What we know:
single chain; 2 domains; Growth Hormone, Chain: A; globular; mainly alpha
Amino acid sequence: MSEPGEKTFPASGAAGPEGDSASLVDWIAVIAGALGAFMATLDTSITNTALPQIQGEVGASGTEGTWIGTGYLVAEVIMIPLTAWLTRLLGLRRLLIVATSAFVLFSMMCGVSHGLTQMIVGRAGQGFFGGALIPTAQIIVRTRLPLRQMPVGMSIFGIIVVLGPVLGPVIGGYLAEEVSWRWCFFLNLPVGVALVTLLSLGLPAQKAELDDLAKADWLGIAGMAVAFGCLTVVLEEGQRERWFESPEIIYLCLASLLGFAALFTAQMTRAKPVINLALLRNKAFASTTLIALVIGAGVYGTTFIVPQFLSGIAGYNPRQAGNIMALSALPLILFMPVLPRVVGRFDVRLMVALGLLCFAASCFVDVHLSPDSAGGDFTVSQVMRGIGQILAAMPLNQAAMAAIGRENAADGAGIYTMARNLGGSMGLALSGLFIDVRSSVHSDTIRESVTANSLIGQARLAADGLGQGIDAATARLRAIAQLSHAIEKQALVMTYNDCFWMLGILLVAITPVVLLLRQPAPPR
C-alpha cells in the first residue's frame, strides 16, 4: 500500500529509457556528467591543504582566509536546488556548457588573484556554477541509461562524489608544495575543455523555454537563496564569531528563517514551485536524503579533523598530510570495477547499513590518539573510512533515484545533493564547536591536576628546566612555558578524539533509518 504523498511517484521499474543497452552517445553523456561532478566536488576541498600559502599570497588573515572555502560552499548550496528549474528553462546541454565555461573562467580568476576580494569572488563564482555540475550528473544517469545499466551509472556517480572531496587535499597539497597553489585552479582549464567537448558530443540540443521566466517561482527562488545561503554562512562562520554573541550571526539566522518562510509559502501557493519539496513526503526518498546529510557531515568532518591533527600535532606539511588522506581513496579505486555488479545484486539496505557502521568504526578507531601519534596511526582508520563511504554512498545514490519517478529526477537530484552539502557544513560546524569548547574543558581539567606545585608538575619542571647551561630562574620559566605548551597540545588531542567520537555516534544513530529505504527494482 502506498504511503500518503507517495501516490504520485511511479515505481522505480518504470524509470529509465527504453532499450536493452545504452548507446555510445549515452555513455559519453554519462562520462561527461561524472567528469563535471568530479571537477566540482574536487574544488570543494582542493584549497584545504594549500590554504596557508594562498592566505600569504593574497594577504588574508586566518579569519578572512576561511571565506576562501565558505564563499564556495555558500554559492554552491544556492545553485544546487536551482538546477532542476534551470534545466527545464535552458535545456540540459546548454546549462552544462554555460556552467562549465563559467566555472573555468572563475577558476582562472582565482588562479591569477593577488587580493582577497578577487579570490573570494572567484571562489563564489566557482561554487555557484559548480553547483550545477553535481546534480546534473545524476539527471544524466537517471534519464540516459536503461534500468539494467543503472547500477553502473550510479556507481560511477557515487565514486566521483566520494572521491572528489578525498582527493582534493591530496592534489592541493602536492601542487602547493611542488608547483604552485595557483595550479589548484589552472588545473580546471584542460578538464573544462575536455568536458565541454564531451557534453557537445553526448547531449542533444534542446530548445530553451525562456517564456518560463515570466511565470517562474521568484518568491521561492529568493526565499531558497536567502534561506540556504544564510544558513550555510551561519554553520561555517558561527563558531569563529562566537555564535549568538555576534549580532551578524543573529541577523543571518533571522534572514534564514524569513527565507524558509518565503520558500514554504511558495510551496503552498505555486503550482510549480522552484524546488519540489513534496518529494520529501515519500518516506523512502526522505530517508535517503537524511542519510546523505549525515554522511556529508561525516565525510567533511573527518577530512577537516585529520589534516588539522597531522599539521598541528604531527607537524606534517601539506603534501605529507595529503598522502595520508589519499589512503581512504584506495578502496574506491580498487572496488571500482566490481561495484556496479555488487550494488545491483545485494540488498541496498544491508549495504548502506554496513557502510555506515564501517564508517562509524573508522571514527572510533581514532578516539585513542595521543600527542605522539603520526600519519601511520591513521592507516587502518583511513582505509576503513574509504570502505565505509563506498559501501554507503554507492547503493544510497541508487536508492534515492529509485524512490522517485524519472520525471522527478532533476528535482530529486537537487534535493539529495543539497542535503549532502548542508550535512558537510553541519559536520564542519560541529567539529569547530567541539574543538573550541572541548579544548578549553580539557585544558582546564589538566591544569587543575598538573600545576607547578603538584608532584607531576615538579617532576616535569625538573626534567625540562635544569641542566641547560642557564640560570635557574630562566630555566624554570622556560620549563613552565614548555609544560603549558604540552598541556595545550594534550588538550587539543583529546578534543580531536571527542570529535571522532561524536561523528561515530552520529553515524551509528542514523543506521536504523536504512529500514525505510526502498530496494530498487532488479535489472531486466
